[in-house]
């Protein structure tokens, strides 16, 4: 079963979807000369050891990034190439490690761009400082990322890519995302926002399955803005608990939906469980 806690999910299919999309969006942002900021509300540790004890508890990378890295680049759509090349770049120096979202952004951003990373967990914050403190473009804060956004928006260059990726260990976190997006859009309506969320099956009293709070969160998020994409990848819909994940993207880059469609088809082929996998892209345009 997929786990969505930071310590255990490194390199699984949810990470592949999220980090690949961050790469696509960041790569789009650097196509213009004007600088931009990358903001990450829940940055985690930054880099994860897939051979470590925590990762080995579930070994989810075995059914995620490890599968993708075994495939030759020629067999995969171009939309996935940058993401996989960056993973290989890290592993060339640190075998068996997998990067978190801040690392991918760091590799793509230019000297004129900046990173603003938030992480409240003491241990993860310590690791984040270790990995990124030498980068002058990067500022790391041990703080709640939802609150941190308030002080940073709108960013000086008026361009930003913002990832909101809480662990959703408590039901209230779904409401916190809604509040954070609503308030952020009032300050900075033109930013590109990526909200990651888990898809969870929970058995109801009638013996049926019902989704978690993500469904209600999505209903609210769709009312906040007129330009959005909702992307979902479910490797195996039969699983109880977390069976997949999604991304709600506000102000998506031009042609992102087309790139995601090509890449998701490949992910479903390599990471999906036969006919029980599912991909979907929903757009408001």
UniProtKB/TrEMBL annotation:
Catalytic activities: adenosine(2030) in 23S rRNA + S-adenosyl-L-methionine = N(6)-methyladenosine(2030) in 23S rRNA + S-adenosyl-L-homocysteine + H(+)
Enzyme Commission numbers on file: 2.1.1.266
Site positions for Interaction with substrate rRNA: 4
Xref: SUPFAM superfamilies: S-adenosyl-L-methionine-dependent methyltransferases (SSF53335)
Binding residues annotated for S-adenosyl-L-methionine, in chain numbering: 19, 42, 101, 119, 144-145, 165
A single Gene Ontology CC term: cytosol
Pfam family, one: RsmJ
Active site residues according to the UniProt entry: 165 (proton acceptor)
Coiled-coil positions: none
Assembly, per entry: Monomer.
Protein name, per record: Ribosomal RNA large subunit methyltransferase J
């Amino acid at each position: 079963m997929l786990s969505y806690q930071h310590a255990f999910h490194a390199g699984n299919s949810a990470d592949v979807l999220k980090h690949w999309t961050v790469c696509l969006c960041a790569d789009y942002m650097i196509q213009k000369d004007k600088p931009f900021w990358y903001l990450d509300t829940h940055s985690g540790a930054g880099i994860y050891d897939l051979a470590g004890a925590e990762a080995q508890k579930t070994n989810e990378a075995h059914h995620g990034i490890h599968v993708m890295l075994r495939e030759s680049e020629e067999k995969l759509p171009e939309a996935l190439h940058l993401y996989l090349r960056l993973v290989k770049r890290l592993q060339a120096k640190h075998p068996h490690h997998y990067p978190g979202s801040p690392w991918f952004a760091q590799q793509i951003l230019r000297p004129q761009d900046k990173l603003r990373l938030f992480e409240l967990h003491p241990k993860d914050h310590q690791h984040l400082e270790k990995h990124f403190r030498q980068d002058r473009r990067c500022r790391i804060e041990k703080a709640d990322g939802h609150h941190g956004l308030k002080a940073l928006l709108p960013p000086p260059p008026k361009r930003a890519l913002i990832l909101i990726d809480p662990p959703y260990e408590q039901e209230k976190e779904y409401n916190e995302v809604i509040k954070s997006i609503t308030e952020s859009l009032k300050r900075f309506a033109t930013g590109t926002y990526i909200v990651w969320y888990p898809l969870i099956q929970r058995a109801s009293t009638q013996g049926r399955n019902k989704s978690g709070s993500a469904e209600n969160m999505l209903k609210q998020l769709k009312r906040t803005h007129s330009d959005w994409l909702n992307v979902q990848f479910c490797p195996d819909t039969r699983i109880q608990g977390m069976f997949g994940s999604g991304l709600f993207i506000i102000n998506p880059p031009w042609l992102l939906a087309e790139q995601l469609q090509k890449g998701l088809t490949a992910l479903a082929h390599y990471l999906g469980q036969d006919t029980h996998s599912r991909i979907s892209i929903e757009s408001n345009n």
